[in-house]
């Protein structure tokens, strides 16, 4: 259902948000939320969510990413990949969010 937008990776959540919009689900009216508690989410349109919902979505995203297992990396392995910039960028794009999310959860506990 549309209420479960926070589960999964950001791309999947955005896809579900777009799907909900296509299905005719409507966000709360702008006037129903105080202006300091609304955020706009860019995508196929815009959806306004409350500050509390934003925090729920962020927590779900951090938890989801942190559950993935970080692949072991050494400076030597990074330097070997450095010859192929696209491979290095791809690996870092996958691995850095996992490490950041795990660190965030560690700091919050």
From TrEMBL:
SUPFAM superfamilies: alpha-ketoacid dehydrogenase kinase, N-terminal domain. InterPro entries: AK/P_DHK_N_sf. It comes from the Eukaryota. This is Uncharacterized protein. The lineage of its organism: Eukaryota, Sar, Alveolata, Ciliophora, Intramacronucleata.
């Amino acid at each position: 259902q549309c209420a479960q937008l926070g589960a999964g990776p950001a791309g999947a959540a955005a896809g579900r948000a777009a799907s909900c919009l296509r299905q005719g689900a409507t966000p709360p009216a702008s006037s129903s939320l105080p202006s300091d508690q609304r955020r706009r989410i860019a995508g196929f349109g815009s959806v306004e969510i409350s500050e509390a919902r934003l925090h729920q979505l962020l927590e779900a995203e951090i938890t989801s990413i942190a559950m993935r297992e970080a692949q072991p990396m050494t400076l030597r392995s990074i330097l070997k990949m450095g010859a192929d910039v696209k491979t290095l960028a791809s690996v870092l794009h996958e691995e850095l969010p996992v490490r950041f999310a795990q660190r965030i959860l560690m700091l919050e506990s």
